[in-house]
Design goal:
Layout: H1 4-32, E1 40-43, H2 50-60, E2 70-74, H3 80-86, E3 94-98, H4 104-109, E4 117-119, H5 123-129, H6 137-156
Parallel strand pairs: 1-2, 1-4, 2-3
Helix pairs in contact: 5-6
Length: about 160
């Protein structure tokens, strides 16, 4: 038998995988309802969930008629703690796609074609929230390059 710590780690990993699957399924439901219920696709290019958290908290603070479903696309999965803190499982208006902004199938899964609005935080804020300290010139160029590549992919998909 596996040691207790290994068994617990395996259980936590399974729980996270299941929750992420639930959130991905919800993202697809939001996408499929896009013609009748407009939604936002929020693309986070950094590894941090701070900007995502700030965006979701500000969205939840608005009056209900202005609330739009949101699909979050992020390269890194949130921890179970972040999922619980943000109430992602309890909010039927939030879906999640873990994927790369450099991979068109991930962008399509995140609803990029159907979204009424696409939100992509500015590169300088993305660097600041990723805990990289003071961004240097190379860091800024790299994040800016990712933003330019994303824009070119969106134009190629016919999204202006």
């Amino acid at each position: 038998p596996a040691p207790p710590s290994r068994a617990r780690a395996s259980l936590v990993a399974d729980q996270l995988r299941n929750r992420l699957g639930d959130l991905d399924d919800r993202a697809q439901v939001i996408r499929e309802s896009g013609e009748t219920t407009p939604f936002i696709t929020f693309i986070e290019m950094s590894a941090s969930w701070r900007q995502v958290a700030r965006f979701l908290m500000e969205s939840k603070g608005r009056p209900l008629p202005n609330t739009m479903p949101t699909i979050i696309m992020c390269p890194n999965a949130p921890s179970l703690e972040v999922i619980k803190e943000l109430g992602l499982l309890e909010d039927p208006n939030v879906g999640l796609v873990v994927g790369s902004v450099q991979w068109v199938p991930d962008l399509v899964r995140a609803g990029i074609k159907e979204a009424a609005c696409v939100v992509c935080p500015s590169p300088d804020r993305a660097l600041a929230t990723a805990n990289l300290g003071t961004p240097n010139y190379e860091d800024m160029l790299m994040v800016d390059a990712e933003g330019v590549m994303l824009y070119q992919m969106l134009v190629g998909l016919g999204i202006d």
